Amino acid sequence: MFISRRAIIIAAIGASFTASAIASSAAAEDLPYGLISGKPYAGTTLTYVAPVAGQYDGHAARLQEFTDLTGIEVEFDFVPFGNLQERILSHKVAGDSEPDLINYMDSWGPALKDMFMPIDDMMIADGVSMERYFGAHQQGSTYDGKVHGLPLRGHAQLLFYRKDLMEKHGLAVPTTWAELVEVATVIKEKEGLGIASYYSNKNGQNVPVWMNLMWSNGGELIKDGEAVFNSPEAVEALQFYADLENKFAVNSEGAKSFEQGDGSLSMGAGNSAFYMGWWWHYGSRILGKNTTLTAEQVGFAGMPAFGNSESVTFAMSMPTAINVESENQEAAWEFLKWVSNADLEKANVIDKSERNVIVALHRENLIDSEVNAANGGLQAAAAASLGNSRIFPQLDSWPEIMQLISNAISDVVANGADPKEALDAAAIEAQKLLDRG
Protein backbone atom coordinates (compact mmCIF):
# COMPACT_ATOMS: atom_id res chain seq x y z
CA MET A 1 0.00 0.00 0.00
CA PHE A 2 1.33 3.42 -1.02
CA ILE A 3 1.52 6.07 1.71
CA SER A 4 2.28 9.61 0.60
CA ARG A 5 5.13 11.60 2.15
CA ARG A 6 2.52 14.18 3.21
CA ALA A 7 0.59 11.51 5.15
CA ILE A 8 3.77 10.38 6.85
CA ILE A 9 4.57 13.96 7.90
CA ILE A 10 1.03 14.48 9.22
CA ALA A 11 1.19 11.20 11.12
CA ALA A 12 4.55 12.18 12.58
CA ILE A 13 3.21 15.56 13.66
CA GLY A 14 0.19 13.86 15.21
CA ALA A 15 2.41 11.41 17.06
CA SER A 16 4.52 14.29 18.28
CA PHE A 17 1.44 16.10 19.61
CA THR A 18 0.23 12.87 21.22
CA ALA A 19 3.56 12.28 22.94
CA SER A 20 3.61 15.89 24.08
CA ALA A 21 0.09 15.56 25.47
CA ILE A 22 1.02 12.39 27.34
CA ALA A 23 4.11 14.06 28.78
CA SER A 24 2.09 17.10 29.83
CA SER A 25 -0.52 14.86 31.42
CA ALA A 26 2.14 12.92 33.29
CA ALA A 27 3.71 16.15 34.49
CA ALA A 28 0.33 17.32 35.66
CA GLU A 29 -0.11 14.07 37.57
CA ASP A 30 3.29 14.01 39.26
CA LEU A 31 2.82 11.97 42.40
CA PRO A 32 4.62 12.31 45.72
CA TYR A 33 7.23 9.88 47.04
CA GLY A 34 8.38 8.95 43.54
CA LEU A 35 5.21 6.98 42.83
CA ILE A 36 4.45 6.21 39.18
CA SER A 37 1.58 8.24 37.73
CA GLY A 38 -1.16 6.73 35.64
CA LYS A 39 -1.96 3.92 38.08
CA PRO A 40 -0.34 1.13 36.01
CA TYR A 41 -0.85 -1.39 38.83
CA ALA A 42 -4.43 -0.45 39.68
CA GLY A 43 -6.44 -3.46 40.76
CA THR A 44 -3.45 -5.24 42.29
CA THR A 45 -3.86 -6.49 45.85
CA LEU A 46 -0.67 -6.87 47.87
CA THR A 47 -0.28 -8.99 50.99
CA TYR A 48 2.02 -7.74 53.75
CA VAL A 49 3.19 -9.63 56.84
CA ALA A 50 4.10 -7.28 59.69
CA PRO A 51 4.36 -7.57 63.48
CA VAL A 52 1.71 -6.32 65.86
CA ALA A 53 2.75 -2.76 66.79
CA GLY A 54 1.13 0.67 66.92
CA GLN A 55 3.46 1.92 64.22
CA TYR A 56 2.07 -0.53 61.65
CA ASP A 57 -1.47 0.22 62.81
CA GLY A 58 -0.69 3.81 61.90
CA HIS A 59 0.42 2.78 58.43
CA ALA A 60 -2.73 0.74 57.92
CA ALA A 61 -4.90 3.65 59.11
CA ARG A 62 -3.35 5.92 56.46
CA LEU A 63 -3.41 3.34 53.67
CA GLN A 64 -6.26 4.99 51.77
CA GLU A 65 -3.84 7.68 50.58
CA PHE A 66 -1.71 5.04 48.87
CA THR A 67 -4.70 3.33 47.27
CA ASP A 68 -6.07 6.67 46.02
CA LEU A 69 -2.70 7.50 44.45
CA THR A 70 -1.99 4.12 42.88
CA GLY A 71 -5.14 2.02 42.76
CA ILE A 72 -3.26 -0.69 44.66
CA GLU A 73 -4.91 -2.39 47.62
CA VAL A 74 -2.84 -3.74 50.53
CA GLU A 75 -3.91 -6.38 53.02
CA PHE A 76 -1.97 -6.32 56.29
CA ASP A 77 -1.39 -9.66 58.00
CA PHE A 78 -0.47 -8.74 61.56
CA VAL A 79 1.49 -11.42 63.43
CA PRO A 80 2.58 -11.26 67.10
CA PHE A 81 6.31 -10.62 67.16
CA GLY A 82 6.97 -13.87 69.01
CA ASN A 83 5.50 -15.81 66.06
CA LEU A 84 6.85 -13.64 63.23
CA GLN A 85 10.09 -15.48 62.50
CA GLU A 86 8.35 -18.84 62.43
CA ARG A 87 5.73 -17.47 60.01
CA ILE A 88 8.39 -16.07 57.67
CA LEU A 89 10.38 -19.31 57.72
CA SER A 90 7.26 -21.28 56.82
CA HIS A 91 6.81 -19.12 53.70
CA LYS A 92 10.49 -19.50 52.84
CA VAL A 93 10.41 -23.29 53.07
CA ALA A 94 7.25 -23.47 50.97
CA GLY A 95 8.55 -21.02 48.35
CA ASP A 96 5.28 -19.08 48.55
CA SER A 97 4.60 -16.19 46.19
CA GLU A 98 2.65 -14.57 49.03
CA PRO A 99 3.08 -12.52 51.08
CA ASP A 100 4.38 -9.94 48.64
CA LEU A 101 6.03 -7.91 51.41
CA ILE A 102 7.65 -9.07 54.63
CA ASN A 103 8.77 -7.11 57.67
CA TYR A 104 11.56 -8.87 59.56
CA MET A 105 14.21 -8.33 62.22
CA ASP A 106 17.62 -7.40 60.84
CA SER A 107 19.47 -10.17 62.69
CA TRP A 108 17.31 -12.74 60.87
CA GLY A 109 18.39 -11.32 57.51
CA PRO A 110 21.51 -13.44 56.85
CA ALA A 111 19.44 -16.62 57.04
CA LEU A 112 16.51 -15.14 55.08
CA LYS A 113 18.22 -12.97 52.46
CA ASP A 114 17.67 -15.43 49.59
CA MET A 115 13.96 -14.89 50.15
CA PHE A 116 14.22 -11.12 49.58
CA MET A 117 14.65 -9.28 46.29
CA PRO A 118 17.61 -6.85 46.09
CA ILE A 119 16.23 -3.37 45.42
CA ASP A 120 19.37 -1.36 44.55
CA ASP A 121 18.40 -0.77 40.90
CA MET A 122 14.91 0.38 41.80
CA MET A 123 16.28 2.69 44.48
CA ILE A 124 18.67 4.30 42.00
CA ALA A 125 15.91 4.71 39.40
CA ASP A 126 13.61 6.41 41.90
CA GLY A 127 16.21 8.40 43.82
CA VAL A 128 15.78 6.54 47.11
CA SER A 129 18.94 6.72 49.21
CA MET A 130 19.91 4.77 52.29
CA GLU A 131 21.69 7.92 53.51
CA ARG A 132 18.39 9.06 54.94
CA TYR A 133 19.01 6.51 57.75
CA PHE A 134 21.76 6.20 60.36
CA GLY A 135 24.56 3.74 59.66
CA ALA A 136 23.33 0.95 61.94
CA HIS A 137 19.96 0.94 60.21
CA GLN A 138 21.59 0.97 56.79
CA GLN A 139 23.69 -2.05 57.72
CA GLY A 140 20.69 -3.97 58.98
CA SER A 141 19.15 -3.98 55.50
CA THR A 142 22.30 -4.73 53.50
CA TYR A 143 23.76 -8.18 52.81
CA ASP A 144 26.67 -8.99 50.49
CA GLY A 145 26.75 -5.35 49.43
CA LYS A 146 23.13 -5.32 48.27
CA VAL A 147 20.11 -3.65 49.85
CA HIS A 148 17.33 -6.16 50.53
CA GLY A 149 14.76 -3.93 52.22
CA LEU A 150 14.03 -0.54 53.72
CA PRO A 151 14.03 -0.14 57.52
CA LEU A 152 10.59 0.79 58.80
CA ARG A 153 10.96 0.07 62.48
CA GLY A 154 14.11 0.43 64.53
CA HIS A 155 15.26 0.98 68.06
CA ALA A 156 17.98 2.84 69.87
CA GLN A 157 19.03 2.02 73.42
CA LEU A 158 18.72 4.73 76.05
CA LEU A 159 19.17 5.21 79.78
CA PHE A 160 15.83 6.10 81.37
CA TYR A 161 15.89 7.66 84.82
CA ARG A 162 13.61 9.21 87.41
CA LYS A 163 14.19 12.85 86.65
CA ASP A 164 12.23 14.00 89.68
CA LEU A 165 14.34 11.94 92.08
CA MET A 166 17.61 13.02 90.47
CA GLU A 167 16.58 16.66 90.88
CA LYS A 168 15.37 16.06 94.43
CA HIS A 169 18.79 14.82 95.51
CA GLY A 170 20.83 17.20 93.36
CA LEU A 171 22.30 14.48 91.15
CA ALA A 172 23.61 14.91 87.62
CA VAL A 173 22.67 12.55 84.80
CA PRO A 174 25.43 9.90 84.60
CA THR A 175 27.52 9.75 81.45
CA THR A 176 29.70 6.80 82.52
CA TRP A 177 28.88 3.45 84.10
CA ALA A 178 30.88 4.40 87.20
CA GLU A 179 28.77 7.54 87.58
CA LEU A 180 25.63 5.45 87.17
CA VAL A 181 26.70 3.33 90.13
CA GLU A 182 27.35 6.48 92.19
CA VAL A 183 23.95 8.09 91.57
CA ALA A 184 22.11 4.76 91.77
CA THR A 185 23.69 4.14 95.17
CA VAL A 186 22.30 7.44 96.45
CA ILE A 187 18.82 6.81 95.06
CA LYS A 188 18.80 3.28 96.44
CA GLU A 189 19.76 4.52 99.91
CA LYS A 190 17.37 7.50 99.92
CA GLU A 191 14.38 6.12 97.99
CA GLY A 192 14.81 2.34 98.02
CA LEU A 193 14.65 2.20 94.22
CA GLY A 194 17.33 0.58 92.07
CA ILE A 195 18.29 -0.09 88.46
CA ALA A 196 15.89 -2.32 86.56
CA SER A 197 18.68 -4.40 85.05
CA TYR A 198 17.68 -7.66 83.40
CA TYR A 199 19.73 -10.84 83.34
CA SER A 200 17.33 -13.48 82.01
CA ASN A 201 18.88 -15.60 79.29
CA LYS A 202 15.53 -16.06 77.55
CA ASN A 203 16.07 -15.28 73.85
CA GLY A 204 19.46 -13.74 74.68
CA GLN A 205 17.88 -10.66 76.22
CA ASN A 206 20.78 -10.01 78.61
CA VAL A 207 23.35 -9.76 75.80
CA PRO A 208 22.68 -6.25 74.36
CA VAL A 209 23.35 -4.30 77.58
CA TRP A 210 26.60 -6.21 78.09
CA MET A 211 27.49 -5.50 74.44
CA ASN A 212 27.22 -1.76 75.10
CA LEU A 213 29.66 -2.14 77.97
CA MET A 214 31.96 -4.41 76.01
CA TRP A 215 32.13 -2.28 72.87
CA SER A 216 32.66 0.88 74.90
CA ASN A 217 35.56 -0.90 76.64
CA GLY A 218 37.20 -1.70 73.30
CA GLY A 219 36.05 -5.31 73.02
CA GLU A 220 34.68 -7.13 69.97
CA LEU A 221 32.39 -10.08 69.38
CA ILE A 222 33.72 -11.69 66.21
CA LYS A 223 36.88 -10.65 64.37
CA ASP A 224 38.20 -12.22 61.15
CA GLY A 225 36.11 -15.31 61.72
CA GLU A 226 37.30 -15.75 65.30
CA ALA A 227 35.20 -15.57 68.45
CA VAL A 228 36.94 -12.89 70.54
CA PHE A 229 34.20 -12.02 73.01
CA ASN A 230 36.33 -13.59 75.78
CA SER A 231 39.01 -10.88 75.52
CA PRO A 232 40.19 -9.07 78.68
CA GLU A 233 38.01 -6.09 77.69
CA ALA A 234 34.93 -8.28 77.32
CA VAL A 235 35.62 -10.11 80.59
CA GLU A 236 36.00 -6.79 82.42
CA ALA A 237 32.68 -5.61 80.98
CA LEU A 238 30.91 -8.76 82.12
CA GLN A 239 32.41 -8.49 85.59
CA PHE A 240 31.08 -4.94 85.89
CA TYR A 241 27.67 -5.93 84.56
CA ALA A 242 27.46 -8.67 87.18
CA ASP A 243 28.77 -6.34 89.88
CA LEU A 244 25.72 -4.11 89.47
CA GLU A 245 23.83 -6.99 91.05
CA ASN A 246 26.29 -8.84 93.24
CA LYS A 247 28.79 -6.22 94.42
CA PHE A 248 27.33 -2.73 94.18
CA ALA A 249 23.80 -3.95 94.99
CA VAL A 250 22.20 -1.11 93.03
CA ASN A 251 19.72 -3.21 91.07
CA SER A 252 16.03 -3.57 91.71
CA GLU A 253 14.75 -6.63 93.50
CA GLY A 254 14.20 -9.47 91.02
CA ALA A 255 16.72 -8.25 88.43
CA LYS A 256 18.41 -11.67 88.24
CA SER A 257 15.30 -13.13 86.63
CA PHE A 258 14.06 -9.99 84.85
CA GLU A 259 13.47 -10.03 81.11
CA GLN A 260 13.78 -6.65 79.42
CA GLY A 261 10.01 -6.08 79.59
CA ASP A 262 10.03 -6.80 83.32
CA GLY A 263 12.61 -4.06 83.77
CA SER A 264 10.68 -1.34 81.98
CA LEU A 265 7.43 -2.34 83.65
CA SER A 266 9.17 -2.15 87.03
CA MET A 267 10.16 1.42 86.29
CA GLY A 268 6.71 2.27 84.94
CA ALA A 269 5.15 0.95 88.14
CA GLY A 270 7.38 3.21 90.23
CA ASN A 271 9.48 0.33 91.57
CA SER A 272 12.76 1.24 89.85
CA ALA A 273 14.63 4.49 89.30
CA PHE A 274 16.62 3.51 86.19
CA TYR A 275 16.16 1.34 83.12
CA MET A 276 18.51 0.67 80.22
CA GLY A 277 16.93 -0.57 77.04
CA TRP A 278 14.96 0.05 73.88
CA TRP A 279 13.33 3.41 73.43
CA TRP A 280 9.98 1.94 72.41
CA HIS A 281 9.42 0.88 76.03
CA TYR A 282 9.06 4.57 76.91
CA GLY A 283 5.68 5.03 75.23
CA SER A 284 3.98 1.85 76.39
CA ARG A 285 5.72 0.37 79.43
CA ILE A 286 7.39 3.25 81.25
CA LEU A 287 4.61 5.69 80.38
CA GLY A 288 1.38 3.98 79.47
CA LYS A 289 -2.22 3.27 80.39
CA ASN A 290 -1.22 0.91 83.19
CA THR A 291 1.79 2.78 84.58
CA THR A 292 1.99 5.27 87.43
CA LEU A 293 4.61 7.71 86.14
CA THR A 294 4.13 10.94 84.23
CA ALA A 295 6.32 12.40 81.51
CA GLU A 296 7.54 15.04 83.97
CA GLN A 297 9.02 12.31 86.18
CA VAL A 298 11.01 10.49 83.50
CA GLY A 299 14.21 11.59 81.81
CA PHE A 300 16.30 9.84 79.17
CA ALA A 301 19.83 10.06 77.85
CA GLY A 302 22.31 8.11 75.79
CA MET A 303 23.76 4.95 77.27
CA PRO A 304 26.74 5.52 79.58
CA ALA A 305 30.33 5.07 78.42
CA PHE A 306 32.73 2.63 80.03
CA GLY A 307 35.75 4.30 81.59
CA ASN A 308 37.10 7.25 79.63
CA SER A 309 36.00 5.96 76.25
CA GLU A 310 32.93 7.08 74.30
CA SER A 311 29.60 5.36 74.45
CA VAL A 312 28.96 2.70 71.81
CA THR A 313 25.43 1.39 71.67
CA PHE A 314 23.59 -1.50 70.09
CA ALA A 315 20.82 -0.68 67.61
CA MET A 316 18.41 -2.83 65.67
CA SER A 317 15.97 -2.37 62.82
CA MET A 318 13.10 -4.15 61.12
CA PRO A 319 13.28 -3.71 57.34
CA THR A 320 10.46 -4.48 54.95
CA ALA A 321 11.49 -6.57 51.95
CA ILE A 322 9.86 -7.71 48.72
CA ASN A 323 9.38 -11.46 48.40
CA VAL A 324 11.61 -12.71 45.59
CA GLU A 325 8.80 -15.11 44.60
CA SER A 326 6.13 -12.38 44.49
CA GLU A 327 4.20 -11.95 41.26
CA ASN A 328 3.62 -8.27 42.10
CA GLN A 329 7.14 -6.98 42.65
CA GLU A 330 6.69 -3.67 40.83
CA ALA A 331 3.51 -2.88 42.73
CA ALA A 332 5.22 -3.95 45.96
CA TRP A 333 8.00 -1.46 45.27
CA GLU A 334 5.41 1.29 44.87
CA PHE A 335 4.06 0.43 48.32
CA LEU A 336 7.53 0.27 49.82
CA LYS A 337 8.30 3.77 48.52
CA TRP A 338 5.09 5.07 50.05
CA VAL A 339 5.24 3.33 53.43
CA SER A 340 8.88 4.34 53.98
CA ASN A 341 8.49 8.02 53.14
CA ALA A 342 9.49 10.62 55.71
CA ASP A 343 6.13 12.46 55.65
CA LEU A 344 4.18 9.34 56.65
CA GLU A 345 6.66 8.56 59.40
CA LYS A 346 6.45 12.09 60.77
CA ALA A 347 2.65 12.07 60.78
CA ASN A 348 2.69 8.74 62.58
CA VAL A 349 4.84 9.95 65.49
CA ILE A 350 3.19 13.36 65.88
CA ASP A 351 -0.43 12.21 65.88
CA LYS A 352 -1.28 11.00 69.40
CA SER A 353 -5.06 10.85 68.94
CA GLU A 354 -5.33 7.04 68.74
CA ARG A 355 -1.87 5.58 69.40
CA ASN A 356 1.41 6.70 70.94
CA VAL A 357 3.93 5.88 68.22
CA ILE A 358 7.47 7.08 68.89
CA VAL A 359 9.50 5.13 66.30
CA ALA A 360 11.13 7.20 63.57
CA LEU A 361 14.17 6.23 61.49
CA HIS A 362 14.71 9.08 59.05
CA ARG A 363 17.57 11.31 60.20
CA GLU A 364 15.51 14.39 59.38
CA ASN A 365 12.62 13.24 61.54
CA LEU A 366 14.77 12.28 64.51
CA ILE A 367 16.04 15.85 64.77
CA ASP A 368 12.79 17.53 63.65
CA SER A 369 11.49 20.13 66.10
CA GLU A 370 7.82 19.16 65.69
CA VAL A 371 8.57 15.48 66.16
CA ASN A 372 10.56 16.15 69.31
CA ALA A 373 8.00 18.59 70.68
CA ALA A 374 5.34 15.89 70.40
CA ASN A 375 7.54 13.31 72.13
CA GLY A 376 9.41 15.22 74.80
CA GLY A 377 12.70 15.20 72.90
CA LEU A 378 12.94 11.41 72.78
CA GLN A 379 13.92 11.28 69.10
CA ALA A 380 16.78 13.74 69.56
CA ALA A 381 18.19 11.52 72.32
CA ALA A 382 17.84 8.52 70.03
CA ALA A 383 19.64 10.37 67.23
CA ALA A 384 22.57 11.03 69.54
CA SER A 385 22.65 7.35 70.49
CA LEU A 386 22.42 6.18 66.88
CA GLY A 387 25.34 8.40 65.91
CA ASN A 388 27.70 5.81 67.39
CA SER A 389 25.82 2.53 67.28
CA ARG A 390 26.41 -0.95 65.93
CA ILE A 391 24.37 -4.02 65.08
CA PHE A 392 24.60 -7.76 65.67
CA PRO A 393 27.14 -9.61 63.49
CA GLN A 394 25.54 -10.55 60.19
CA LEU A 395 26.03 -14.29 60.51
CA ASP A 396 23.66 -17.21 60.04
CA SER A 397 25.02 -18.67 63.27
CA TRP A 398 24.65 -15.49 65.34
CA PRO A 399 21.40 -16.50 67.12
CA GLU A 400 23.12 -19.64 68.44
CA ILE A 401 26.26 -17.73 69.38
CA MET A 402 24.21 -15.05 71.14
CA GLN A 403 22.48 -17.71 73.21
CA LEU A 404 25.87 -19.13 74.27
CA ILE A 405 26.92 -15.67 75.47
CA SER A 406 23.56 -15.16 77.15
CA ASN A 407 23.91 -18.41 79.08
CA ALA A 408 27.40 -17.38 80.18
CA ILE A 409 26.14 -14.02 81.45
CA SER A 410 23.33 -15.70 83.37
CA ASP A 411 25.74 -18.20 84.90
CA VAL A 412 28.02 -15.42 86.13
CA VAL A 413 25.24 -13.29 87.61
CA ALA A 414 22.97 -15.99 89.02
CA ASN A 415 25.50 -18.66 89.99
CA GLY A 416 28.68 -16.71 90.66
CA ALA A 417 30.63 -18.31 87.82
CA ASP A 418 33.98 -16.77 86.91
CA PRO A 419 33.46 -14.33 83.98
CA LYS A 420 36.60 -15.40 82.11
CA GLU A 421 35.89 -19.10 82.45
CA ALA A 422 32.26 -18.62 81.39
CA LEU A 423 33.16 -16.58 78.30
CA ASP A 424 36.06 -18.89 77.41
CA ALA A 425 33.72 -21.87 77.40
CA ALA A 426 31.17 -20.00 75.29
CA ALA A 427 33.87 -18.87 72.84
CA ILE A 428 35.02 -22.47 72.28
CA GLU A 429 31.50 -23.54 71.32
CA ALA A 430 30.97 -20.39 69.25
CA GLN A 431 34.15 -21.09 67.28
CA LYS A 432 32.80 -24.49 66.30
CA LEU A 433 29.76 -22.77 64.81
CA LEU A 434 31.93 -20.23 63.01
CA ASP A 435 34.24 -22.92 61.61
CA ARG A 436 31.21 -24.80 60.36
CA GLY A 437 30.31 -21.69 58.34
3D architecture notes:
- There is one protein chain.
- The chain is an alpha/beta fold.
- It folds into 2 domains: 32-154 and 317-382, Periplasmic binding protein-like II (D-Maltodextrin-Binding Protein, domain 2), CATH 3.40.190; 157-314 and 395-435, 3-Layer(aba) Sandwich (D-Maltodextrin-Binding Protein, domain 2), CATH 3.40.190.
- Helix content is 47%, strand content 14%.
- The chain has a 5-stranded mixed sheet.
- Helix 10 crosses helix 11.
- It is globular, with a radius of gyration of 25 Å.
- The termini are far apart.
- Residues 1-28 have low confidence and may be disordered.
DSSP, total strands: 15
Q: Measure the end-to-end span.
A: 69 Å
Spans of at least 5 consecutive residues whose pLDDT stays below 50 are 1-28
CATH topology of the largest domain: D-Maltodextrin-Binding Protein, domain 2
CA-based gyration radius: 25 Å
Q: Gist?
A:
It is built from 20 helices and 15 strands.
Structural topology:
Blueprint: H1 5-28, E1 45-51, H2 54-61, H3 63-70, E2 73-79, H4 81-94, E3 101-103, H5 109-112, H6 120-126, H7 135-139, E4 142-143, E5 146-147, E6 150-155, E7 157-162, H8 163-168, H9 177-191, E8 194-195, H10 207-216, E9 222-223, E10 226-227, H11 232-246, H12 260-268, E11 272-278, H13 281-286, E12 298-302, E13 313-314, E14 316-322, H14 329-339, H15 342-350, H16 363-366, H17 369-374, H18 378-386, E15 389-390, H19 398-415, H20 419-435
Parallel strand pairs: 1-2, 1-3, 8-11, 13-15
Antiparallel strand pairs: 3-14, 4-5, 6-14, 7-11, 7-12, 9-10
